[in-house]
Amino acid sequence: MNELAKIEFSGGCSDTPILKERGQREVFCGLTSIIWLHRKMQDAFFLVVGSRTCAHLLQSAAGVMIFAEPRFGTAILEEKDLAGMADAHDELDREVKKLLARRSDIKQLFLVGSCPSEVIKLDLSRAAERLTKLYTPKVRVLNYTGSGIETTFTQGEDACLASMVPVLSATDEKQLLLVGALPDVVEDQFINILTELGIEKIKTLPATQKDKIPRVGKNTRFALVQPFLGETAEALEGAGLRRISAPFPFGEEGTTGWLRAIANDFNVDENDFNEVISAPRARAKKAVEAAAKKLTGKSVFFFPDSQLEIPLARFLVNECGMTAIEVGAPYVHKSIVGPDLALLPKGPTISEGQDVDLQLERCRKAKPDITVCGLGLANPLEGEGLSTKWAIELVFTPVHGYEQAGDLAALFSRPIKRREVLRL
User: Fold this and answer.
1) Does 227 reside within a domain?
2) Is 219 contained in some domain?
């Protein structure tokens, strides 16, 4: 048997000093993650305990018409709740009863904390325990926080998945767990490739239905598909699972490294590995090469937003020929993004956290060809003549894996093309 070459995750920006900033931040609310999570978990409902502002945010972000029946909603805290003039727990119980009576399809109910519910110290964990006892076994009630006070928007998914770990059933079966919400088409692509590699037992978290929620145990290996799942990874490791360390599957290089790390852990033969990935890998290289023609030689500057920044910088530099000036991330978990840091050539400033005024000064001075940032900064920077890419678009768009590698490069080339057209 020919063993797969071992992967060395050292070098590059592994030892680059991290500029840590603490100041005013420009971030999006963690409630936003409900928009992709409610599509993934088809029998779940996300009940935000918050204000009318929370309700308007979700309505606007989802683009849902008022007469539609989405799998999320808001239990609105009124002035009397905030002032302590009403028992918020009694009111929440009443709203949950009405919701479950109306929606018999709900099998999982998530009580989602917000800034207002956290300000008044509403104990949603106690509410979840009480409601679980009331509605079990038909409905399982969990809680997590989606508050944007101290978090960025992708941490909503992290908190949601972490809340599920303590209630996962146990098994001693050897299996692979893919952790993180992906579009169905991308998830199917990964499962198909991994199955071809001979890995028979593959589970996902989150699962599409309650009855498909995985059992886990000491023989379960898990691989993250999103770099913002630090809390979930810690919870799974605390439950005895072992994480497979790998670069994240963005582009040809990242996808190959991710698959290779999994194949190593499951003792896949090298010849078998190369045979399975050769065709999709070749398609990915060709697609990236075609889409990245406008990117070669251009510079990119990342504001901290989604926590995808380091893997995306690695992709743009190594596969698209770009130069990274600064790669800012809300948090830099080296244990998670270490493999991507190792593959990212030295040169860019790596920053964690944000002092938005100082970072804006550095960006304006650098005059990058593309600036990746949140919605709140994009329009002002465009007005100053800088081309921008919305960070949130990279979360809502299928960008993982071989088949989406060309699409990922095209997302960054479009601002360049748009700027060229506007200059004509």
Assistant:
1) no
2) no
Q: Is 360 helix (H, G, I), strand (E, B) or coil?
A: helix
Q: Which residue in 348, 299, 309 sits closest to 330, CA to CA?
A: 309
Tally of domains in the chain: 2
Distance CA 47, CA 112 (A): 6
List alpha helices for 197-324, DSSP H.
Answer: 230-238, 251-265, 270-291, 309-320
Kindly report, residue by residue over 213-252, the tens digit of the pLDDT.
999 999 999 999 999 999 999 999 999 999 999 999 999 9
> Measured between alpha carbons, how far is 232 from 333 in angstroms, rounded to an integer?
13
Domain membership of residue 379 (yes or no) is yes
d(CA 295, CA 299): 8
- Report the distance separating Cα 35 and Cα 46, nearest Å: 10
Domain end among 98, 130, 151? 151
> E strands of 304-384, at which residues?
323-329, 349-354, 370-373
Q: Is the pTM of this model over 0.85?
A: yes
CATH number for the domain spanning 407: value is: 3.40.50.1980
Domain that holds residue 91: 30-151
Residue 108 counted as domain residue? yes
- State the alpha helices, DSSP H only, in 348-403: 356-366, 375-383, 393-396
Last residue of a domain, one of 109, 127, 151: 151
Of 285, 217, 293, 291, which is closest to residue 253 (Cα–Cα)? 285
Q: How many helices (H) and strands (E) does the chain have?
A: 17, 14
